[in-house]
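User: Round two. Same drill as before: sequence, then structure, for each protein.

Assistant: Same drill it is. First protein:
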Amino acid sequence: MLWIIDEGQEDLAQGNAQDGIWNGLLKKPLDRSQLKGMVTTILQCLEIERKYHAGANELEMLVSRRTKELELELEKRKSVERVLRKTENHYHALIEKAPGGIALIDGQGQFKYISPSARRMFGYSHDTYMKMSPDALTHPDDLPFVLEELTKVFSLTDYSPTIEYRFQSVDGSYKWIESTFSNMLADPDIEAIIINFREVNERKMAEEAIRVSELKYRALFESQVDCISIYPVKELDETVCFLDCNQSTCSILGYSRDEFLRMTPFQLESVTHQATLSQRIEQIKQTGQLDYEARVKHKNGFYLDLEVRAKLINISGIPAIMCIGRDITTRKIQEETLRQSNELNRILLGTIPYGMDIVDEEGNLLFINQSMTAQIKVDMDGKKCWEVYKDDHCKCAGCPLAEPLASGETRIFEAEGILGGRTFLISHTGMQFNGKNAILEIFQDVTEKNNVEKRVNLLAHALESISECVSITDVHNKIVYVNRSFLETYGYAEHELIGQNIKTVRYRDLSDLKEDEILPETMEGGWKGELVNQKRDGTLFNILLSTSIIRDSQQTPMALVGVATDITEMLKVRDELIHAKELAEESNHLKTAFLNNMSHEIRTPMNHIMGFSSLMAEARCEEKDAYAEIVLSSSHQLLKLIENVMLLSRLQSEKIELVPQSFKPISMIQLVIKQFEASAKARGLQLNEKIPVAGEKVSIRADLEKIKKIMKILVDNAIKYSLKGNVEVGFGLQDEELTFFVNDSGMGIPEREQSKIFDSFYRGEQAISMAIGGTGLGLSLAKELVKTLKGKFGFESTEGIGSYFYFAIPLVMEETRPLETKRTKPAKKQLSDLRVLVVDDEEINFAFLELLLKKLVASVGVAHSGIEAIEKVSEGSYDIILMDLKMPDMDGYEASRILKLNFPNIPIIVQSAYATREDRQKAILAGCDDFLPKPITKELLIELIQRHC
């Protein structure tokens, strides 16, 4: 409110202002600008007052709403705390009652907590666990692996492995457990590694039982002679491959195992069988088993017929079908040949324009061809042949049923009053039909000559259309007719054969006895057999010939019919099958002989080793040396046998590299003679060398070890098969060849055995009868070695006089090189000053090497794994390392790589039972300096140590 007053009313205005009645005061006379300013100021003050009251109300409402929200939040927190307490109690109960174990370990690897189930599992109390280290309870063999995984868990927070290892119980036994590690060190509420584990002892035992069962199954699986293959059936399509197959499958179908397992059932079966494969699978699923025949593809492109029995099986939860197939290709070929022959007969019978039937001895109709059926207008069921054909329904005069015909015997006569008053010329031939004596009747209607000529033309057309070679000759063997197939097969024109004797197409050297028997036997009823015929160009081929005779109405012979089939391919297949059978029988004989020989050759030294080893424990000191010598000799004999078998196997299955070196042949010859002097002397033989003039100066480059191996085999054989006289060993030079030979005056090789002596495992009759030792591998091995040397092998032998074996190799003379300036090598250490580290996880192997070396070197250390070897070398000082290859945590290859990287001057010699060329190369690539194959001899071990130190 704005007050406007006169002069002298100020006191009244002040009193009202104190009561809050007005907001402003102006005196008269009024000033316009002053009035406007006063009104503006009052309005501004009123707006400020309004906003103040509105803000106060809003603040009051905000405080009230926030107070309510805090009250709700507090209630929620209390509810959550109740749930958390309940959840904590719930999970605590679950942990306390859980069948699996739960453990917490701190950052130092010590226990922080063990659940009750874990305490029950292993029998320890909680306090005992808290005092023990997990490392002490882990099996020593598993500890390195567990520590390695645990190290990763500590360093990688997101690494949570599940592993299996053995943990010790309170009774000292070990149990298999499966543990999962989780790194929760960073979690302030846990600050530990959580281990969840459960006992898996029973599963481990089950796995072992399954492994043993799998070995038995595999042995049975591979021993089967039939094809066995397995493929899955769940969601089978054209990309699902076979799961497994046995060796017989590979042998019969020609595929390697890897090739077969990359194939699908759809690829293996023929196109016609692929369409029914899915249907067969569904039927097997429903019935569990199905027998059927299939055509499968051989690797070389042709198809084989298999008789298959398929069964539904289960492999590790996967439904699969196991197919057992037997090769029935030969049987199917025979069946198809028979079917084609029957089909040909059926076609011939169906297309011949004559009426034809087959009746049994009582006149019952067994067969009627189409021509005859067309002429019969009456019901034939249950009627005799004369009741159907004869107008008077009576037997024909002279019916052959009255006097039964022998099989192949033919009678012809005319009969009237048949099928409506017509006359027929009827041919009756005795035969067998469906196992019964029967008669083939051929009706020729001679009522009208036109019909006869028509039927003759039809017959001629049928003969021209068949694939067999048909010829007709007169009774003097002069050709009067040949069909088209005959001309095409023999290569003649028709005019070149008509009027000629049938001998024109016979093989010129054919026995007259066989040729002359065909005509008489045909005149008597027929002839059938195999012949060799000759085409116009002189080509010889085999035929199966069947002949028969044609007679007129008076039974006078008119002509001879010959039907010939080219059986060249059939005989070829038969010969191949016979040859394959002979090879299989010979292979089986050789395998049996080899097994017998190997059994004898292995058991003999093993008998010595085991027998004299058992005697050594009770023997006197002076006897022990003799027994040990026998054991050592037998061990060398057994090792030699194994090496020969392995070498022959490698020579036959892979390419062996040559290792040429310079040597003098005379030195090698003298060394071989020296090695066999004792055995030759024991048999009363003299070993002599025969060297060419200037042979002492000859030096060549070749694979010395392979040549020496061949010479040892030949000298050993010469001594074994010689009872008196001498054995001559030497070499000779001719052109660009160097020939080594061994000449003996022994028992010689019978001529009947000379083609077999290089066959693997073959041993001659003399060796068997005189009980001469051996496996039959020597000459096979020698021949393969000569082939590797790109040489040629030969021999000459006379029974009772002796044998001369030789082999020639390309002559490569040693090149003359300028003398090199000798370099000063660092002085080698004495053997007695060496510190040797043996790396081997087998305690017995280390004990053996320690016994060999402990009196020869300064010290012998041991490491049982690759990791331990690296630690030992890093901590100590060793002069040489003997490294095994197969070890549990880190193998010898990896350990050698690491050691050579950090200690390049320490020689590493591999000592291992892995002794193939690939193993040697892999070891050298890993940084090893040499390779010592087991069994280890003291002499070779010391030689290699001195070579590298």
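Second protein:
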Amino acid sequence: MPTFADIQPGSYVEPGLVPTTVSLNLPVGALGLRYSLSPAGDTPTGWLDYTEPIALSDSITTVTAYAYTSQTNVSGYLTGTFVLQTAAVTADLAAGTYDTRLALSLACATPDAEIWYSLDGSVPAPGGAGSQRYSSPILQDDRLAVQARAWLSGREASIVFSADYDWVTAPASASLPTGVYASEQLLTLACATAGAAIWYTVDGLDPDRDADPPVGEPYDGSAVAYSWGEPGLRLRVRAYGPGCQPTAVVEYRYLWSNVFYVDGVNGDDNLNAGTAPGSPKKTIRAALALANAVGGTDPLAIRVAGPFSYVETEPLRILRPLTLSGSYDTAFSTQNTIANLTEIRYNTSDPGTTAVPAYTLLLNHVDGSSSLDSFRVYAPDGTTDIGVAAIVLDQTAVSFTTVRFSGLAAREISAGVAIRDSSPLFVDCTIEGGTGGSVTTGEYHGAYGAWISGPLANPEFRGGTISALGDLGAALGEPTRSAGLLFTEEARGLVGGVASNTVVQGGQAEVSVGILFGRGAAPQLLGNLTVTGCGATTPAFAAGLFIDGASPVAQGDNIVIRSGVTPSPAYGIYCIATDPLYPANPQIGDAGSTITVRTDGNGSGALAAGIWISGQYASGTIQACSITGRTAGAGPTYGIWIGDKARPQISRCDIASGDAGAFPAYGIHASNIEQAGLLIEQNRLRAGVSSVDACGLYLEDVMFAKVRRNRIYGSDAGVPSSGVDLVANTVGLDGVLLVANVIMGTNQPTSSGHFGVRHRVSGGVVSRPRFYNNTIVVDGLTSDAFLNLADGVAAQARPYLVNNILYGATSSVAFRESLASGGNSNPAALLTNSLFGMDSHYNDNTVPYTTAVTINSGILTGDGDCAGNVCLDVSAGFTGGALSIITIAFFFVYDWHLAGTPPDPLVMDGTNLRLLASSGLVSEDFYDFYGNSWPAAGLPWPIGATGP
């Protein structure tokens, strides 16, 4: 088959590279070549003998050729198409916007080609509608939309060129930038567009030459000196270029000086600028209006001589860095107080119908170099439908020192300070909320000292007092809810941490909270800080801290968190998290902290908890805190209540329930926790006075918890009392580990019904908590150091006790199993424990065990001379059945004579060892060893006891 020799098929457009002929190669062995120039796609006809290069005379040429060796022997066909195209049209201007009208030139690199163009959006063609043959540069006003194409005989037309052009006048400019000037200046205007006409206004209107009548004046090009009046010169300029679109309006603002003088004695409302004492003085209104008019970023100074009490009729908006200072007799650079400015007020014209948020001061984008000192700002008078605040900070980092912000009344939300994505500093300030109305549809409706929101919010409150209600707001009625501080929407911040004490408190409301943390907030609470939930009245709910899906940090010395007086219910800290998007992970205390958390008052019939933690997404740490549920009164009380799958870690705390009267009192109460993470370690847990139930540690339906190295106490008053109470109602306590704890049920030797540890299991539940190396002590008449109680059919109460000391004191039982009728229970396993008590191991079940009772390597003692008492009694458990195996090794029986003196060895007899009250003992591995030293084998005295 032949091949193309020099030129290959394709499109050719570059000038000087367009071929005129095509050559073919004769294959080896072929006699000759034939070719056809039929149109593309047609069947080749009119075959010609190939004798010389083939001429390309048309714009599109298709060559088909074959080789032959004889008249009947033909090779395969070679086909190729050659396109000869006109070069593309080019322009001398790139598409875009130009501030001067320019002529557009077109060109084509193909010699002698004709260019045709259109300006109406149609595709150009020679002689076509809307098409023009290009002969000279194109010039048109305003806008130019060009399409162009080139043609040459014998060539394909070029591709279509398309471009859009805008002729726009360059912006008019002034010779002076916006700013503050100490004296009058010469002002000129200019425009980069040649021949442009400039129009301007000084009254705030947009100049418009084409309006009827025209707005503004034409600028004649001469320099002009303006005597600027209040509130400065607001210059607006616009330029009109020939054949171009006019420019947008550009605004310039000018002010005489960056220092304004306010005289509290001789102040007036005139608008004459004053640059030195003795000149006409401005009011606060005029000075702040000038600040707004100028704009820019240069600091503005307002210097006050007074006293000055100011009442406004609309919000004072401060839109640039501002410094207010006192007496102008002192140089501004050294003056940092405005003690003579006493107050700023804003009165709404119609206080009952305002439908938008109302505020007195708005600081927007004010940087951290600004400061405001020593005066008072009032929120608007009256009420609004939305909310009210004395001051609103939006993306502002200004500093406040000894300023007082006072909120007033609102129908839904009231605050002394509202902060959005800002990082202000408040030093020794007084911040007061107002009165939120009774509307409860909103998430945070109510009264707040300061409302902080937004992920960029990071304010600091150092010293001073922050309260939900002040002397103005409190007189107007109680809101639905109140909080001294509200942090929400991922806000951060800092409270306290200075030598002077910082006080934060809620108010008189249905729900009263000292600090409310919501939706991802993560501020820090530092030292010298007192947080109180409510005031003198009794709310429906009160808490020092309310944590709702937030992760605050409280670490520092001398932090007191309290519910307030007589709340119902009351919480020092209330923490909840049910939304996975907003988990609660508070960090309360650390090794260097001194933190007190408590409730206050009597609160008749009310629940009280030092800390309440609830929700499956609540965790966090509580360290080195003193936590008290209640000081006195009635109602259930808890040091810490944990529930609904919460998993905090609690360590090195002193935790007391407080006194509950006729209600339960728990040091720590935890229930409904089925996942790992609950840790209670190195704490002191105490139950207060209760005539119903007093317990140092109460775990109900808790799994995978670790309780390590704690000192746990029941109550010294009230019945019953227990150190630890384990309850299995719906799930067991598998995975609950109690290691190296000291547990005391009570210290009442004349009272009955107490327990060191009580393990209670309802029917059908398997519960297997584990005890390792604990010391369990109880005192009192007919009390148990460890009570294992199963209730119901097929209950499985099987705790594991390894290396523990169970000490029943002089008249108590060290270990007792009490299984309900028909129990079929799996008894406890006691391995290498030491049991001291009247009946060291006792079973009062009425049905036989079905598995072994194991007492291995233990020390068991009786009471007195063992006359009439027993050291070990499991006989009741064998009535009507058989015991598989009992292994008793290293078994000591002592005769106790005098407390604190070494006991005498006593030969064991059937009086004090009852194993075989009925038949059925399969095997007995029994070793009788005699000891004559005390403590035996280096055994220490149980903590809290003076000896047997």
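The longest helix spans residues 284-294.

User: Perfect.
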